[in-house]
Amino acid sequence: MACSSCSCAPAPQKPNSKFRTVLWIALLINLAMFVVELIGGAYAHSSSLWADSLDFFGDAVNYGISLAVLGASLYWRATVALLKGMTMALFGLVVIGKVIYAYALGIPPEAMTMGVIGVIALLANVVCAVILYAFREGDSNMQSVWLCSRNDAIGNVAVIFAAIGVFGTGSLWPDIIVAGIMATLGMTAGYQVVSKALSERRLQLEN
Questions:
Q1: pTM of full prediction above 0.90
Q2: Nearest by Cα to 79 from 203, 206, 207, 194
Q3: Among candidates 153, 181, 137, which has minimal Cα distance to 19?
Q4: Cβ distance 179 to 47 under 8 Å?
Q5: Is the dihedral of CA 164, 151, 45, 120 positive or negative?
Q6: What is the crossing angle of helices 47-68 and 74-105, to 10°?
Q7: Which residues does the UniProt record annotate as the domain Cation efflux protein transmembrane (predicted)?
């Protein structure tokens, strides 16, 4: 872990070519899935798909930011991670708002579309999670990237179960429950990243 648990002097991180390549792959996958789920979620009237599309977009932006600061000092990487963590938590709040709106409309989503897109999204996020797994114990910036992919994979499994629930019951509640779970994941992961980023920034200022 880069200087977050020692008293070494601040030093710029040497750009990791493997991590850079992985980030570009994850960025392109997330942009593609953002478009797929945005259209599919609107067509199926699904809160969980729509929420997941926003998550894909947020992750794509996060990966782009991570690419931009790969060669920066730990302080600036932590600063960017702090902003990303706050964004992840804000995503959770946005999803809660969408859930309330969906409940007010009371329109059950289209289960088949939810299921098919959910499976495609799961495959995409499993690929991202696997290629990013080796970097999960890095600094707060690397950790935030890993947490994004992990949460997405978990969320996609939940979307698939929601589709099954909607198909079996004809109710919108499975979709709403899953969207709520995704909101919780976003807020808790955001808290983790913000806490670690603040710790790293404080350490660098003290040194």
A1: no
A2: 194
A3: 137
A4: yes
A5: negative
A6: 170
A7: 23-199
